[in-house]
Amino acid sequence: MKAVSTRLEYLKKQYRIIYESLDEDPRIQMKDLSTILGVNRNSASKLVEKAFEQEYVMIPQIRKRSYANLKEYVYLANYENH
């Protein structure tokens, strides 16, 4: 049982390192990430994949910036079929 909890703690630490590394440099090379993690590139790739699967790291999202004085426009159109 202790080995399982130790493994989970290890994975959580690795996922945190992945999260922080991607936050700092979203285009980080896998070889650089593997060096930071202290594992080979294949293991780093699997860890990154699992981090995304388990949602420790989320895919990038594009969002509109909101400002206090942001104007939004709505266009309404009324069409008839002929």
List the defining traits of the structure above.
54% helix, 82 residues, mainly alpha
How many H/I helices?
Answer: 3
Helix share, percent: 40-55%
Beta-strand residue fraction: under 5%
The strand count comes to 0
Which runs of at least 5 residues are low in confidence (pLDDT < 50)?
none
Q: What form results from the Cα inertia axes?
A: elongated
What Rg is obtained from the alpha carbons, in whole angstroms? 22 Å
- The SSE string, one letter per element, is HHH
Task: Give the termini separation.
Answer: 74 Å
| Sheet having the most strands | none
Gist?
The chain has 82 residues and is an all-alpha fold. It has helices at residues 2-24, 30-37, 41-53. The chain has one domain.
Description:
The protein has 82 residues and is mainly alpha-helical. The protein has one domain. The protein is 54% helix and 0% strand. It is built from three helices and no strands. The longest helix is centred in the N-terminal third of the chain and has 23 residues, at 2-24. The chain is elongated and about 70 Å long. The model has no long low-confidence stretch (mean pLDDT 87).
Element layout with pairings:
Elements: H1 2-24, H2 30-37, H3 41-53
Helix pairs in contact: 2-3
